[in-house]
Amino acid sequence: MEKSFEKKHAEKERSLILAMESSCDETAAAVIKDGRTILSDVVFSQIALHLPYGGVVPEIASRSHIEKIDLVVTEAMKQAGLSFEDLDALAVTQGPGLVGALLVGVSYAKGLAYALNKPLIAVNHIAGHISANYLAYPDLKPPFLCLVVSGGHSHLIEVRDSGLTLVGCTQDDAAGEAFDKAARVLGLPYPGGPNLDKLAKSGNKDAYHLTQPKISGAYDFSFSGLKTGFINLVHGMDQRNEPYKKEDLAAVFQETVVTHLCDKTMKAVKDFGWKTLALAGGVSANSRLRERLKELCGAADVAFFVPPLSLTGDNAAMIGAAAHAQLIRGETAPYSLNADPALSLNFAPERDPVDLGAGADPHGQDGGPDPV
Ligand code: KG4
Ligand code: ZN
Fold first, then answer.
1. Which of 44, 107, 112, 191 has the most CB atoms within 10 Å of its CB?
2. Angle subtended at Cα 348 by Cα 278 and Cα 352, rounded to the nearest 5 degrees
3. Which residues of the chain fall below pLDDT 70?
4. What topology is assigned to 141-311 in CATH?
5. Could you tell me the distance, in angstroms and rounded to a whole number, from the CA of residue 142 to the centre of ligand 1?
6. pLDDT (0 to 100) of residue 363
7. DSSP strands (E only) in 209-315
8. What does pTM read for this prediction?
9. How far apart are CA 68 and CA 328, in angstroms?
10. pLDDT at position 356, please?
11. Which amino acids bring their CB within 6 angstroms of ligand 1?
12. Where are the domains of the chain?
C-alpha cells in the first residue's frame, strides 16, 4: 500500500479522495479535495425502480448498484478531471444500510484500492451525513451539536475533534421511517417523506390534534406511538366516511414530528449551552424542520447550519468529506474490509457536560462560517 500519504500531506491536511456510497437506493461516487471541496458529485437515484413497489426492494437495489457503480465512478473521475493515479485514497460506506447494497460498494472499492495500491477508508454512513455540513460550510469546525435524522436513524450527537458523543436517540422508529409510513397511509407515492412535505405546504397544521410523543429520556425521541395515533386518526375517519383533506393531515403529522424533534434538540442546546447546531440526514430536507430550527436558533442566538438540498440525501460527497478526517488520523481499512449493515457509530462512553471541547470556543464558531 502507498505509505507516502502521511508524509506528503498530513501537515497541510490535503487530500484527493474518490468516495463511493451504495448503502440504500442511491449509487453515488464523488471526488473530494481536502475534505471540503467537491470536485465531482454523481448520484444515480433508484427512485423510478422502486416506485411501483411503494418502497425500497433490497434485491432490486443491489442489482441496480452492480449495474451502475462502474458508470458512476467513471463519470465522477471524468467530471473531476483526474486520473486514478492522482488520488490519495479511496473511501466507501461500510454501513449501516442494506447488506446486499453495501456489499456492492465495498467490493468495488476494495478491488479498485487493491489494484491501484491506494489506502482504503471505511466510512460510517451517519458520520458521512454529519460531514455534509463541512462541504456546505468549509469553515465549520467542531465542537457543535448535530441532529441527524434519516430513514434509519434519529440521533442527537455532540461533534468534537476528539470524537462523537451520543446525547440522545430514538427509542423506536426513525423520523424518516415515520414520515414514510404516514405518507403511505395517505396514499402518497414512494419516496414518502418528500411527497408528504410537498403536500403539507397547502394544508392546515391545526386542523386536527395529535398527541405529542412522551418519552422519559430528556433528549431521546419516539415516533412509534405518533405513527399509530396518525393511522388511527385516518382509519377512524375512513370508517365513519368523514371527509378530510389529505393536505391537512400531512401538515398536522409533519408539525407534530417537527415539534418533537425541535423540542428535544433545543432542550439539549439550552441545557448544555451550545451555541452551534447543525442538522443532517435525509429528513434534514424537510422544509418545516429547516424553517422551525432556523427560527428557534435565531431566537436563542444559536448559529444554525444545514446542508443545501443537494447534500441532504444520500451522496458520496459526504462520504469523501468524512473520509478526509479519517485519512488525516491514519484510520485506513484493510483490503479484507466487510460491509456491516448494523455498523454503529464510535461513541465516547459518556458525555461530559462540563468540557464542551478542548481549546476551541465551545459555544460558537468565532471567525467561522456564516450560519443560515
Ligand atoms: O439519509 P437518507 O437519504 O437515507 C437514509 O440514510 O436513511 O434519508 C431518507 C429518509 C427517507 O425516510 C425519506 O422519506 C426522508 O429521509 N426524507 C424526508 C424528506 N426528504 C427525505 N422526510 C421528510 N421531509 C422531506 N422533505
Ligand atoms: Zn442516509
1. 191
2. 75
3. 1-12, 349-368
4. Nucleotidyltransferase; domain 5 (3.30.420)
5. 25
6. 46
7. 276-280, 303-305
8. 0.93
9. 30
10. 39
11. 24, 125, 150-152, 176, 179-180, 191-194, 197, 281-283, 285-286, 313-314
12. 3-134+313-328, 141-311
